[in-house]
Amino acid sequence: MLKYSLKRIVKLIPVLIAITLIVFTLMYLTPGDPALQKLTSQGGEVTPELLSEVRHEMGLDRPFIIRYSSWVLNVLQGDLGNAYTDDQPVVPKLMKALGYTASLAIACTLFSVIIAVPLGVYTAIKKDSLFDNIIRIFTFTGNAMPNFLIALLLMFLFCIKIRAFPVIATASLKGMFLPTLALSIPMISRFARQTRADVMSQLSEEYVIGMHARGVKERVILFRNVLHNSAGSIITIVSLQIRVLIGGSVVTEMIFRWPGIGNLMMNSITARDFPVVQGAVLILATLQILVNLLTDLSYFLIDKRISLE
Amino acid sequence: MKKEKQKLSRTQLKKLKMKRKVIIWGVIVSFVLIMSFMAPFFLPQDPLETNALMMRKPPSFEHPLGTDNLGRDVFSRLLAGARTSIFATIMLVIFSFIVGTTIGVVCGYYGGFLDDIVMRFTDILLSVPQLVLAIAVAGMLGGSLVNTLIAIGITSWTSYARLARSHAMRIRQLPFINACRLTGTSDATIIMSHVVPNLVGPMLVNATLEIGSTMLNIAGLSFLGLGVAPPTPEWGAMVSESRNYLQLAPWAVFSPAIAILVTVMLFNYFGESVCDLTNTKEA
């Protein structure tokens, strides 16, 4: 286990380097002069002398490779630079927002798995029943829904028609309910479809038929064998969906004004405050890589044969 | 003997049913495509004309889907926006298809160092949250439809490249390719006249399956205000513009959003029916 984990972690190093390179180049290629942007976003008069002074201060007159390496060194020390708008360090802002985004993502993943896995298993057993068909229509629709439609529909129903929730989500458990629900609906659709397909393919395997023939109880086959065997692919789809979730959370956070990273990123894009955008992309990408790593390690926990490869 | 005959006819029947499904969805999808291209010529009203007296009016006979916060006819805007939304989606899918397939085929056919580098690169792109990268790119380049397409295009070709590569690697090892090599056929000819025709089918199936999610990505970005510039009608942007008036004019928000939903569903149904049919063919 340890050896396998270490091998996986070592493999991550080039990926991380590449990501810092992408994020930095993004900033480098952005049209416009960062020094000018910094000065204009802070307000006040911009004189050529001031501009060249700030340019020197920000190291903009140095070549790409030196700027990149000094930036990476700073990142390794946990310094992502200062925001243009208020000249405050970016990292505390991002960390505060990350907490909100992470709690939303965790709540949403848990909620979706708890609803979707039983739904998928049940519809696989009761294939082609009325219930299965109804759920199929729901999951197909949920899959095709733009996430802003779900969020706006929920907002329209719960905040405007029923008035059960305030329109602007407060950073509380109650405020978290609607964003979580909005993010969960497409997730539930995909998880349920995947689970149903996996369980169905497992149910047609010969070992299931054999166990039936030996008179093993349906419940035992289902929970002890079938579910265990489908766990790998369910985890795969969960980890793949987290990428979609991270992207979708930008839209949902913006609609409900949830103070997470997505919201921060959008506000910073509007304010053209690029160090914050850069930091947000870096953190979300790192988050995704950690999820990928945990996914790979969890395969190992489920199926010990993987380590032999 | 008799039993076998029955079984055969049942699979044939199933296949026929699937074929019929593909044709039905194909006709519907082509109808939507043609409609979306023709729609701008049959607009009931000018989609850009604002009217201060008709602001946020609910659906009526004159305005089937009501008017938005500037008094523009939502139905006309919806029709005019169809071309932008659907055209952008199809363009992006075609672009990713061509770029991804080319890179994938070259990597799969030649293998080696180039292949290693490109595949590492796709690994990296796949490990970054796609939409986040697209938002950052579009946000930094500045919002416009072309920039949105570039932003999504940066990552969207990777899945095509991986698929094409795996097919090209399989085809490369088939005996008839070896025979071609022995007769001295050039690599370029082998790729163009033997490898590509053999993988274009499954690649097209994958492309039809991707249309729906591509459309959702574009809609997401343009909803965030990173798509077309405001007066131009486009579905995601329409939702974004009317969002602040959700309470006063829900029709202006939900009509374009539901248009996206329905279109994506149509493309998904079509893609799945094509996928089902080709799977049974292989089996």
UniProtKB/TrEMBL annotation, chain A:
It is a multi-pass membrane protein. It holds the Pfam family BPD_transp_1. The chain crosses the membrane at residues 12-30, 97-125, 137-158, 164-188, 234-256, 276-302. PROSITE patterns: ABC_TM1. CDD domains: TM_PBP2 (cd06261). Keywords: Cell membrane, Membrane, Transmembrane, Transmembrane helix, Transport. It is found in: Cell membrane. It comes from the Bacteria. InterPro entries: BPD_transp_1_N, MetI-like, MetI-like_sf. Residues 98-295 form the ABC transmembrane type-1 domain. Belongs to the binding-protein-dependent transport system permease family. This is ABC transporter permease. It comes from Fusibacter ferrireducens. The lineage of its organism: Bacteria, Bacillati, Bacillota, Clostridia, Eubacteriales.
Automatic annotation (TrEMBL), chain B:
It holds the Pfam family BPD_transp_1. InterPro entries: BP-dependent_transpt_permease, MetI-like, MetI-like_sf. It is found in: Cell membrane. Keywords: Cell membrane, Membrane, Transmembrane, Transmembrane helix, Transport. It is a multi-pass membrane protein. The chain crosses the membrane at residues 22-43, 86-110, 248-270. Residues 86-271 form the ABC transmembrane type-1 domain. PANTHER family: D,D-DIPEPTIDE TRANSPORT SYSTEM PERMEASE PROTEIN DDPC-RELATED, OLIGOPEPTIDE TRANSPORT SYSTEM PERMEASE PROTEIN APPC. Belongs to the binding-protein-dependent transport system permease family. This is ABC transporter permease. It comes from Fusibacter ferrireducens.
